[in-house]
Every structure is written in C-alpha cells, then in structure tokens.
Amino acid sequence: MTYRVTLIPGDGTGPELVAATRRVLDATGVDFAWEVQDAGLDAMEREGTPLPDRVLESIRRNGVALKGPITTPVGSGFRSVNVALRQSLDLYANVRPARSMPGVRSYYRDVDLVIVRENSEDLYAGIEHYVIPDVAAESIKIITRPATERIARFAFDYARRNSRRKVTAVHKANIMKFTDGLFLQVCGEVAKEYPDIAFEDRIVDNMCMQLVQKPELYDVLLCPNLYGDIISDLASGLVGGLGVAPGANIGDGLAVFEPVHGSAPKYAGQNKVNPTATILSGALMLRYLGEIAAAEGLEAAVRAVIAEGKNVTYDLKPQADDPTAVGTQEMADAIIVALRRL
Predict the structure, then answer these.
(1) pLDDT tens track for 65-119
(2) Whole-angstrom distance, CA of residue 103 vs CA of residue 271
(3) Please, which residues have CB within 8 angstroms of residue 34's CB and are 6 or more apart in sequence?
(4) Helix boundaries (H) for 12-162
(5) How many helices (H) and strands (E) does the chain have?
(6) Taking the model in full, what pTM does it have?
(7) What pLDDT is stored for residue 45 in this prediction?
(8) Which residue ranges form the domains of the chain, and what is each CATH number?
(9) Residue 327, phi then psi, degrees to nearest 5
(10) For the residues of 174-189, what is the DSSP string, one character each?
C-alpha cells in the first residue's frame, strides 16, 4: 500500500529535519508518496499568508501530514501556524509522549508519560482584545462539554488501545469553578464508561510538582489546552528536552505529526540540530497509519543509535563541544543503518 502524505518542511531548521526524517521513513520499507507543501515565513513573503489554502486542501485530501517546525513571531506578526492548522482542520487531540531513553542525559529514568491535550478551545482559542489600549487586555477562556467529552474519550480510548493503566485529569477547578469545573466534571462522567482504566485528577500546580518528584506514578495525563502545552514541555524536560519530544495533532480522519520544539532559525542550514523529535513524530505517524511493526522498528533504531552515543548530534554528547558529534543527516544515516540491522 502507498500512503499519500502531505510534507510541510517548515522554516528555520525545519527543512533539514524533514529531509532527514523523510529518508529514514523511506528506509522503513513503508511506501510513501510525498506531497510537498510550503508554509511559514517563505509562504508569507510569497503569498501574503503563512498558511495558504493549498496546504489545508492537501491535508484534507491526503488525511495525514508530517510537518517541520515553523517560526511564530513573538508579540506581533502573524498568529501561530500550528494553532491555525489545528483550528482549521479541527485537530482536537494533541498527543505528546515523553519516554526515557538510555543515552539521553536526564535526572530521571524510566519515565513513560503520554500527555493528551485538548487542542481547540480554552485560552488558545485566541479570543482576546484590549479593554483599554496599551493598559488592559482581556482573554476569554472557553471550555465546552462537547469538546471535553471528545478529548476525554480520546484519552481513555488511547489508554485502552495502548494498554495504559491510568488517566489523570489536570485542572484548576478549585479556582476556575465554572470552566475548569466543567472540564473536571465531564472527564469524571466519561471515566465511568471505562471501568478498566483507573481515573484520578490533579490540580495543575500540584501536578507539576508531582511530575518533578515522582513521575513514575503517572501514565496518561488529560489536559485542557493551556495546561497541556505547559505540562508537555515539563514532561519533555524529564526525558531530556524538546530535542527528543515528538507530537501528533489528531482529528476525525485527519492528523498532522510534528516535533514539539521550535524552528531554531539561528542554526538553519548548519546540519547541526538533533532530528530525533521529528523522526519519532514520523514513528507516531506510522502507528497512526497502522504500520505498527515499522513504527516499533524505527523507535528501536533511534533508541539504539542514541544508546550507543557514537553517531549523535552535539546535544546528545556528554559535552556539547565534543568534536565527535555528527550532523543532522549523519545521525539519520546511522538510524537507517540500525534499521537495516534489526
């Protein structure tokens, strides 16, 4: 079977990360037909929008996309392309695994978390305005029963499908009694439909402390949009940082896979940055497509290369200035060799 996949290189270091990942995915033996679509800063300069309609049409046509990081201006300029993609395609579920890997420096071992984040509403809906220009601004937090029900069912279905033991709802219902209160109430109602999966809840600030103290107690974390964004970065820090953090945005019949980290434009074109997060996002895509053996083989190859520590980028070396560090493409080459040995 040939899978048609929209391929969005992104900007900054995105194109080189996506090029490396494309080679690795092709080496798994799964047959891909790649449809390349540019988005981001270059598209903004040429077409007046960072997310042209042709990109959305391609994803709707193919049903799946692999995307490199795209720069989001801070404080001004266009809004996040990532947020626009999720909202335009109703990719309501953001999935970010955080799993320890031998060879990646961390204070923790055996962390194995999955953050499931509601992707369509909360403060990230972008409903904000000035009350008094340059003096006071207001942002509106939206939580609805339908959106909470579907993300809760997604989290419990994910847990059941992947043999996970527990779902923890994360909230601030002690303070935001209507919005987060509704989120917690609905998550509890949905949990009753899944008696085989344990359910509990944690207040978000306590959840952050708990993850730092004893992450081994947690499994699938079910979060509203803003908390999920923050906690998924915290969880990535537990396993070595954003350089090894893959991500998926999933809706009904559509999915976009991308690394959690940003575009790092200062490193663009230097063949320097770590491709692990993008490659593991490709592995998530393989799982979504039902190519489980290929996904497991790719993940095993990545883990083997990192554990060996020889053909890895500078950030995966004990010292960042280690002269034996290899580039983005060379690490991808090593992963391809490891794949062929499996």
Answers:
(1) 999 999 866 444 556 788 889 889 999 999 999 999 999 999 999 999 999 999 9
(2) 21
(3) 5, 7, 22
(4) 14-27, 41-47, 53-62, 81-89, 145-161
(5) 11, 12
(6) 0.93
(7) 86
(8) 1-92+245-342 (3.40.718.10), 107-238 (3.40.718.10)
(9) -90, 180
(10) TTSTTHHHHHHHHHHH
The dihedrals phi and psi of 246, each to the nearest 5 degrees, come to: -85, 165
228-248 as b/e, with b when 16 or more CB fall inside 10 Å?
A: bbbbbbbbbbbbbbbbbbbbb
DSSP state of 287: H
Q: Name residue 170's amino acid.
A: V
Ramachandran sector of residue 317 (left: φ over 0; alpha: ψ -120 to 50; beta: rest):
beta
Residue 79's pLDDT is what? 64
Amino acid at 114: V
Strands (E), the chain: 2-8, 31-36, 64-67, 93-99, 112-118, 128-132, 136-139, 166-171, 198-203, 220-223, 246-250, 255-259
Pair 100, 79: CB distance under 8 Å = no
What six digits make up the tokens of 16?
Answer: 């080189």
Which single residue is written with the structure tokens 């509203």?
224
Q: Which residue in the block uniquely carries the two structure tokens 């494309």?
A: 22
In the beta sheet, which residues pair with residue 137?
130
- Copy the structure tokens of residue 2: 């040939």
Instruction: Give me the pLDDT at residue 78, please.
Output: 57
Catalytic (active-site) positions: 124, 172, 205, 229
CA distance 148 to 140: 17
Report which of 9, 69, 22, 18 is spatially closest to residue 336, judged by C-alpha positions. Answer: 22
The answer to whether 311 touches 333, Cβ cutoff 8 Å, is: yes
Give just the sign of the alpha carbon dihedral 161, 26, 233, 254.
negative
d(CA 219, CA 164): 7
Query: Which of the residues in the chain have pLDDT under 70?
Result: 72-79
Name residue, tokens 């419990």: 156
